[in-house]
């Protein structure tokens, strides 16, 4: 047992990085719990002593010196106690070795499972102690296996779990793949510590920027807000209190080198870097670039930013499946309502209606008929006179006589119109 114990201590200390004194204490406690039933006497304040150098195991108990033993588990004859300590008095305590003859065999058989359990608990405690303060960091590992839809990542001495909710929907993982992930939290549950990893968390992007951009690391540039739809697009708002520092340029890097490294780690997820502004209107306008904004306004009652863009910019501003609008809303903290600007069309429609009204009055026709003529290019007296009566009759689906009357009315209106100065 002694040589096996020493070999076990050496192995666990070397391979598992568990301190020898911790192991000795754990094994002593396990042996104590496992071997109490094998003692027929001498169990008062029983403890197990293990020599960490040679592996010798002794059982020691604190017994009370008495004239006559009535409880062998707690007492020892005064005469025997005097052999161990000459000046001991009746009623005094003395520590006595009570190791049974077959203790080595009993310990080897009964304590092995208890020792293994304790060692596993020590390892779990070590995992928790090492990782409990690493939440918020990025770690690297290898995909080891899959448990249902969770990815188990080998981090060296430990394993981390990437739940399905923390995976990027556009990424596929295979056993043996090297991955980097963000440590969301370290849970110390009933089954031991569990390291929760994520590649979809917005703070994964934050940590990548802190690693890649020295100005963010030294706080010259502040990363104010992140809005992310993992696998598709991320918007990052940055700011610098130093007017001489361009926060966007610092994050992009020379020839885009810095942001390219981040995009590569994110498997080509699109990353927009935006200058943060305390004015929500300016901030929202910057977040929606390169869409050309015609008008932007703020409704504090509904906490909404209303944005008007031209028809050609509408899909660009809203983004695929509304993604750009959603991320802008997350980034600014305001509801963002993007609509097509129809002001020009409304003005044109009003002008057409006014022209049709004028033509209708001049020719003595209905505004509906004037509208039909306008839609076909005859939107003024001058335009009507470029055609003839048959054209008018055809457009209005009327007889030739009525067409001729309308044409004559147009000629009369033109003759009475004031000459242009």
TrEMBL record:
General function of this protein: Participates in both transcription termination and antitermination.
Assembly and interaction partners: Monomer. Binds directly to the core enzyme of the DNA-dependent RNA polymerase and to nascent RNA.
Principal location: cytoplasm
GO terms (BP aspect): DNA-templated transcription termination; transcription antitermination
InterPro entries: DNA_repair_Rad51/TF_NusA_a-hlx, KH_dom, KH_dom-like_a/b, KH_NusA_2nd, KH_sf_prok-type, NA-bd_OB-fold, NusA_N_sf, S1_domain
Segments forming domain S1 motif: 136-200
A GO MF term: nucleotide binding
Family assignment from sequence similarity: Belongs to the NusA family.
Protein location: Cytoplasm
Protein name, UniProt field: Transcription termination/antitermination protein NusA
GO annotations of cellular component type: cytosol
């Amino acid at each position: 047992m002694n040589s096996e114990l020493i070999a076990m201590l050496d192995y666990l200390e070397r391979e598992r990085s568990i301190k020898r004194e911790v192991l000795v204490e754990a094994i002593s406690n396990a042996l104590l719990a496992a071997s109490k039933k094998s003692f027929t006497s001498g169990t008062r304040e029983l403890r197990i002593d293990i020599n960490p150098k040679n592996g010798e195991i002794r059982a020691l108990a604190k017994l009370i010196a008495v004239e006559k033993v009535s409880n062998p588990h707690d007492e020892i004859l005064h005469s025997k106690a005097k052999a161990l300590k000459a000046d001991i008095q009746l009623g005094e305590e003395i520590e006595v070795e009570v190791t049974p003859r077959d203790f080595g065999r009993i310990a080897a058989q009964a304590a092995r499972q208890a020792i293994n359990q304790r060692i596993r608990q020590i390892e779990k405690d070590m995992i928790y102690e090492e990782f409990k303060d690493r939440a918020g960091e990025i770690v690297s590992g290898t995909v080891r296996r899959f448990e249902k839809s969770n990815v188990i990542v080998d981090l060296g001495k430990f394993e981390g779990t990437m739940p399905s909710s923390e995976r990027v929907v556009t990424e596929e993982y295979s056993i043996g793949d090297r991955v980097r992930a963000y440590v969301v939290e370290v849970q110390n549950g009933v089954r031991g510590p569990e390291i929760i990893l994520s590649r979809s968390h917005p703070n994964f992007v934050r940590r990548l920027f802190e690693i890649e951009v020295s100005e963010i690391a030294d706080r010259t540039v502040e990363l104010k807000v992140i809005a992310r739809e993992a696998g598709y697009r991320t918007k990052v708002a940055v700011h610098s209190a130093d007017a001489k520092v361009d926060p966007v340029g610092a994050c992009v890097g020379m020839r885009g080198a810095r942001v390219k490294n981040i995009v590569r780690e994110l498997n080509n997820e699109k990353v927009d870097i935006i200058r943060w502004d305390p004015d929500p209107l300016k901030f929202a306008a910057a977040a929606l670039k390169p869409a050309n904004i015609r008008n932007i306004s703020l409704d504090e009652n509904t906490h909404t930013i209303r944005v008007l863009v031209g028809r050609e910019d509408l899909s660009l501003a809203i983004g695929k499946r509304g993604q750009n609008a959603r991320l802008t809303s997350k980034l600014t903290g305001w509801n963002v309502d993007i609509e097509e600007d129809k002001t020009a069309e409304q003005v044109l429609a009003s002008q057409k209606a006014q022209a049709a009204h004028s033509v209708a009055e001049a020719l003595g026709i209905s505004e509906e008929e004037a509208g039909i003529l306008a839609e076909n290019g005859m939107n003024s007296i001058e335009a009507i006179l470029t055609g003839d009566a048959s054209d008018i009759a055809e457009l209005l689906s009327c007889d030739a006589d009525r067409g001729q009357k309308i044409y004559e009315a147009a000629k009369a209106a033109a003759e009475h119109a004031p000459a242009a100065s």
